[in-house]
Design brief:
alpha/beta; binds magnesium ion; 7-stranded parallel sheet; 4-stranded mixed sheet; about 375 residues; globular
Length: about 375
Amino acid sequence: MNIVILGSSGSIGTQCLSLLKDHPEHKVIGLSVKSQTELLKEQAVEWQVPKLCVYEEALAEKLSGDLDRPVSFGMEGLIELATLPEADMVVVALVGMIGILPTISAIKAGKKIALANKETLVCAGHLIMPMLSDYHAELFPIDSEHSAIWQCLRGEEEKSVESLLLTASGGPFFGLKKEEMEGKTKADALKHPNWSMGQKITIDSASMMNKGFEVIEAHYLFDIDYDHIDVVMHPESVIHSMVEYVDHSVMAQLGAPDMRLPIQYALTWPHRYPLDLEKPLDLTEVATLHFAKPDFERFPLLALAYEAGKKGGNLPAVMNAANEVANAAFRNKQISFLQIEDIVIRAVHTVAYQAVNTVQDLIDADRWGRDFAYQQIQGVNQ
Ligand code: MG
């Protein structure tokens, strides 16, 4: 299989490449980064990758000069890689809204897509899912919860599903009172108890925006209405998610909290291959598993995601855009942790509902959400 990885310098991208070392039958034929050209250079040499893209044009030009070969750039460069005729699979490991156009392009080119970019489904799931059958493309989730559900659904009939149970660790602030969360810093929020992930998603986990996104993602991936998707707090992250069937039998997928497992499953499905984990799951060591209902008051972004998902239209895209800006502002120490949720909630409750029928509608909704969040942050800092 010929594989393109969009976002090869991030947590998912680098783990994906390290997994492929054990699979010489697959060739890496395209890699993209936003700005980390040094790492891209190393990856390009190691994997002898014919097509490279650096999102930032000036850096792409410099790399092109250094390597004495063409390097594409910008959204056009990402789309070029996502649609390479010789590519069989495109791994979309980009962070944020930027993943939408390359994913749509890969679908239109009939590719297999391993999707780690949940923002794409959050904002555009209703546009993307019908396109898959139209263009004979396939979409495989990399997100651990959705990989778990995908594994639990294997061999079962769609009509026998009663509900999906998404597990949530609760992130670093699980169990804290609201006032205890107020003074939390970036360093506190980045201390995820179980998972090692990129910064943006780790902050989203601390605010539980991430779990909200995953509810919407599950709705589209598995075509289940929101009233049949539940979140279950499970601080040990041993059960990665569950499916309840109409006979109330519940299937769960368990494993060590290691992203290489869902990444490999997406790359090699329908096959399973050995995976050399440092610490495979030992249930006797874990000994006890805990479960609780989510606290929607303490984590209002989870409630907001249900609301935005159910109402649809431009609301999920506005929510995502405002969150991207607020998340970055928190990481840049411009706003406090709880101001993230203030800004995102205000954005969704201020915007006028509009249907999203085209990619342009989506871009407009995204723009609105970003502008609104920027204004709010400016207000905070005046
Ligand atoms: Mg996840």
